Amino acid sequence: QSCHWHLMLQPSSRSCKFQLSKDKESFTVEMIFGVRQGDSDIFVGSQPTEAHFIPSTTWLETTAVAEAKFFRHVSRQAPHDSWHCKCLQFLSRILKGVGFSSYTLKTVVMHLLNTVPMTQWRRWDFPRRLVDILMYLRCSVETKQLHHFVIGNERFPMEISLPLDFRRAEPLNLFQHLASDPEAYTKAAYEY
């Protein structure tokens, strides 16, 4: 395939980013560098951060691999016609640029996948699951609380390797900024 695609390196300070194009098709690929912590599925990585005060030489812990393994774990249990990924993809595209990150939506979907039986994620359940996701998001905004899915989650599958302190930790509130900044809360409530 490499002789049919044009590869162009893109500027990036924390990753390896390049553009692949062929005829009218084009997409960007970004490789984020990471180092595994022991034998766990937690890595320290060079991913970009929204926090401007963190130096570019700082590598942050990431749960991305553990989250990807959770989706594979769920997919193995799901019926062949499960639409759980389609729900996430649909809402991520619809809400792009509205103020809620795709990570926020992914976190909400993971929480629901942990509580709603997989038999209720089929094609005909699609509208109901979309409503569930949006209601969970609304409740999270109103309470100013959305717990990180991996850190401190007692229901996280044991077969996915986490350091013990991740399992025992107090759940991390991804909406802490809404609780401490009234302007951020007003903006999030408006955007919802």
Structural features, described:
With 192 residues, the protein is an alpha+beta fold. It has a domain at 64-191: Poly(a)-polymerase, middle domain (Orthogonal Bundle). The protein is built from seven helices and six strands; from the N terminus they run ββββββααααααα. It has helices at residues 64-77, 84-94, 102-113, 126-143, 164-168, 176-180, 182-191, and strands at 6-10, 15-22, 25-32, 34-36, 43-45, 60-62. The strands form two sheets. It has a three-stranded antiparallel sheet with strand order 1-2-3, with no helix packed on it. A hairpin with a 6-residue loop joins strand 4 (34-36) and strand 5 (43-45). Helix 2 (84-94) packs antiparallel against helix 3 and helix 3 packs across helix 4 (126-143). It is globular. The termini are far apart.
